[in-house]
Amino acid sequence: MKDILISATRLKKELITLLICFLIGFVANIGSIIYYKSDATEIITSLPYVLVFMLAIYFLWSLLRMIKWVIFNFRRK
Fold first, then answer.
1. pTM of the full predicted structure?
2. Which of 9, 15, 56, 61 is spaced 20 to 30 Å from 25 by Cα?
3. Overall number of domains in the chain
């Protein structure tokens, strides 16, 4: 079976992308807390929802990258 190698630069890019997705979800959470005038404890208690939102954003971003990759690879051939 063939081993899959992920370069350090690729891993770093993916981790930065995941961190950006988390920050988008966290800022959206803080914005909703401010908008609805909720308690500040909502920042911590709604962290699982932020993580789910982060994964959804990351999944959509990955899907868009795969679609772009398919389009550009078929265009070359």
1. 0.85
2. 9
3. 1
